Amino acid sequence: MKKLLVASRGEIACRVIRAAKSMGISTVAIYSEADLGSLHCELADESFCVGPASPKESYLHQQTILDVALSANVDGIHPGYGFLAENSDFARRVVSENMLWIGPSPDCIDEMGDKDSARQIAKAANVPVLPGTDRFTIDDEPDLLGLASEIGFPLLVKATAGGGGIGMKLVTDPTKLTAVVESTANLAEQAFGDGTLYLERYVANARHIEIQIFGFGNGKAIHLHERECSIQRRFQKIIEESPAPNLAADVVAKMAIAAVSLAQHQNYQGAGTVEFVLDADTQNFYFLEMNTRIQVEHPVTEMVTGRDLVKMQISQSEGTQAVIEQGEIMTSGAAIECRLYAEDPSFHFIPSPGELTEFTIGANENARIDTGYRVGDSVTIHYDPMLAKLVVWGQDRTQAITQMMDLLNQSKVKGVKNNIAFLQATLKHPQFIDGMISTHFVDEHLNDLI
């Protein structure tokens, strides 16, 4: 590969561009009118405008992006995460133009992108799956209470095409089930163009654990250990770490085996993540979904394994990535990632657009900062308000927490509201320090954290 187009923006575009350039690959950035002069464009060798601020008219406009790729004579396209990263139609169009798609096969994206299909595949691979219903639509006029009685309350109403916490709602009251199903279906139709739903058992005392995998095709895959992703707001992650605290080694091992089994079953190629919900009371775990792309939190894994997942993705697509044996993947120390957002934690974490009049991020020898912003840049209403990912490594979890607190104490953001104080409060909370966390941590301790 001589030239690569990065079909994304912000910190992940910067991350991929840097990796490609370190491999001697020329890079092409795309940007919307709202992102004119952005950091990812400055880092790339070439950059092209693909439309107005609206993602639908720019970062999601497949034809425009393909036209840029063809005119720039690129050899491949890396989609980053978000936007078109898990769009099988776009992947097929890239391949049909004789360009390399930096990701798994379009068929695999299809199979794992549909949550109901993914559940069936997980079952076939002997991966534990939560009790749930088959897919349905409102037009099917399902017997909702009859379906729910087989699962029990509380339960989750989930969109089959959902992701990132969108299209997922908790129901505790049977009398509200119909209304929640209808509202979730409408939201899913608007967000994904697909109002298909299913019901799934809700785990009350849950932890969100994910396993990073990498597939080499032909049934060969490995894992790069686990990440703890339980610190969330609105079903979206805020803090991730590896290894997961207070989790028995045999449970982690079983999860890893299940994740690799799923990847092997799919003849998976490239980086992917298998997400599980862990019942903290029983220590049983269940398949949630598989993300067929690089994850926001991939630096946590890179910090403890010393492996560069983006470079591995590129090499795999080129056909130059050597097969790595599981025994070669070693871990060292502990890593923590904090997502720095332009948002107001005291007001339901509402995004806070505006100009960054000050943007100073701390630094130390064990820290990694991934960002797409600089002083003077504007945070707009059009895109995710994440400003940066702060990642640290320590010899153990205690040292990693101390390193992160030092980093946050050095950081200053002005011009927009931000969650620095919220992150600091979380890291120093006694239960977080003790590793006593769950997906309800933020809700349960919200008054303390804000």
For the termini, the CA-CA separation is 48 Å
CATH class of the largest domain: Alpha Beta
Let me know the largest β-sheet. 8 strands, antiparallel
How are the strands ordered across the major sheet?
13-12-9-10-11-14-21-19
Summed up, the domain count is: 3
Blueprint of the fold:
Blueprint: E1 3-6, H1 10-22, E2 26-31, H2 39-43, E3 46-49, H3 62-71, E4 76-78, H4 88-96, E5 100-101, H5 106-113, H6 115-124, H7 144-149, E6 155-163, E7 166-171, H8 177-192, E8 197-201, E9 206-217, E10 220-233, E11 236-242, H9 249-265, E12 269-279, E13 285-291, H10 298-305, H11 309-318, E14 334-341, E15 343-344, E16 350-351, E17 354-355, E18 358-360, E19 367-371, E20 378-379, E21 386-394, H12 397-410, E22 412-414, H13 420-427, H14 430-433, H15 441-444, H16 446-449
Parallel strand pairs: 1-2, 1-4, 2-3, 4-5
Antiparallel strand pairs: 6-7, 6-8, 9-10, 9-12, 10-11, 11-14, 12-13, 14-21, 15-16, 17-20, 18-22, 19-21
Helix pairs in contact: 4-5, 12-13
